[in-house]
């Protein structure tokens, strides 16, 4: 039985190497006769890959060997055990897969998505805001301090030298001229004492 699983697995994995994917069954066609009008197409809710052949092959070998032994020897006392094994494994596989997939998808996606969203948002916001505030403040204050010391002061000195100093000199010259003009006009109006 294990050899059949190995053969099916080897076949489908070699197929995957050359074709790029293992084919999957998405719909089943049930036909009653030779005419296509009497056939029914069942669409499966999800695709079933041929990789499952590796698990189903031992069940078919077991069922075939049971049917062969039954037809050759007649009824046997161990038939109940074989029937129980075949149907137990088959039903266990089908029920386990269906309930496993349904509950896994419902609870896995529901809880995983819900908890992931809640914890992701809370931790993302807290760490993002905290680290953004710390690094933003550090960078902003450091950049502002460096700009203030290394750029603003020299630029202020250059601005002062180029704008304020000539204006101050001009103002002093104009004030001196004003005083000179006042002094000259006051000397004309006052009589001389000599």
Topology summary:
Elements: H1 2-19, E1 24-31, E2 39-49, H2 53-73, H3 79-189
Antiparallel strand pairs: 1-2
Helix pairs in contact: 1-2, 2-3
| Count of separate DSSP helical elements | 3
Rough outline: rod-shaped
Mean pLDDT: 78
Extended strand count: 2
Order of helices and strands: HEEHH
Assign a percent range to the helix content: over 70%
| Strand order in the sheet with the most strands | 1-2
User: What is the CA–CA distance across the termini?
Assistant: 145 Å
Structural class: mainly alpha
Largest sheet: 2 strands, antiparallel
Low-confidence stretches: none
Percent range for β-strand residues: 5-15%
Radius of gyration: 48 Å
Describe what this molecule looks like in 3D.
It is a single chain. The protein is mostly helical and 194 residues long. The chain is rod-shaped. It starts with a helix and ends in a 5-residue tail after the last helix. It has helices spanning 2-19, 53-73, 79-189; strands spanning 24-31, 39-49. A two-stranded antiparallel sheet has the order 1-2.
List its traits.
194 residues; mainly alpha; 3 helices
In short:
With 194 residues, this protein is mainly α. Helix content is 77%, strand content 10%. It has a two-stranded antiparallel sheet.
